[in-house]
Amino acid sequence: MKISITVVVLMTTVACSQSGAARTQDNAQLPQPQPAVATACALLAQIDSTALLRDLERLAHDSMAGRLIGSQGAIKARDYIAARFDALGLEVPPGGRLQRIPVSSQRLPDVEAAWNVLGVVRGTTQPERWIVMTAHYDHVGIGRPVEGDSIYNGSDDNASGAAALAVMAQHFQQSPIGRSILFAAVDGEERGMWGSRGLVDSLPMPIGTVDLNINLDMVSRNERQELYAAGPGRYPQLTAVVEAVQPCAPVRLMLGHDTPAAGPGNDWTNQSDHAAFHARGIPFLYFGVEDHPDYHRPGDHADRAMPGFYVNAVRTIIETARRFDAR
Ligand SMILES: [Zn+2]
Fold first, then answer.
1. Fewest CB atoms within 10 Å of the CB: 100, 251, 277, 296?
2. What dihedral angle (degrees, nearest 10) is formed by the CA atoms of 293, 295, 296, 301?
3. Centroid of ligand 1 to alpha carbon of 2 (angstroms)
């Protein structure tokens, strides 16, 4: 979920819209860049893009029926993600792979509980400090038909973020950072952020050891190749982290959408699961795109993802996490 009305803040320190491969070729004919920049570009992570796109299709498939919290489709999605975390061998936190979150029977009378899926990758040099990476896997289920289609598949929103968690976990497992990372696919965002609020209330580590929440919600498509990193407007110490990634990012990495100055509806601070962390004073980086014509419509299908953008968005998010950890 995430509603924007107009584009207001466009801080373009941008960056390059070319792919990393194209830029490498160009560099051969250009004056040598600063060593720090060249190194950073060279290190941009490769990810399992086949798994990423496969998981996106599975989670956004009609058989998941739009993944409404409490529905059989959401249970299927939960179990699919848990099986992925199991297959990767992600460490199970003390409370288990699945975290049961009570919900209000008054507000959600047909829902027994929300379910989060958790996995851990231990850090190398300060494993007692944490980054929590979240993405909601629920969507809005089956609703009013549009052109005969009543399944709101929620591919970009937010099968894209949930699928990204698994490949990011795989990456950090193979190449860990100093801090430990908790990967949390959370439930019930669309109906009140039950999963993320419950997670923050029942973290498997002391809340004071969480240095950052990285939240993904809608990361698989944008016509202008723009990916926002919201949060630095609230936590200025994060600005330099994002600015360090911008010159090397293979997408247009944007700042903004994180203060009242963005205008009504355009401040995303409380519009997705990072809000639960922000409410406890934990800094967040929220990665997402501006709304598109399929936003919260049955047409949000996996085949409308932009694979090149999607893969590069995930690589950019990984790089940002690495830069944060290294500072
Ligand atoms: Zn969403």
1. 100
2. 90
3. 6
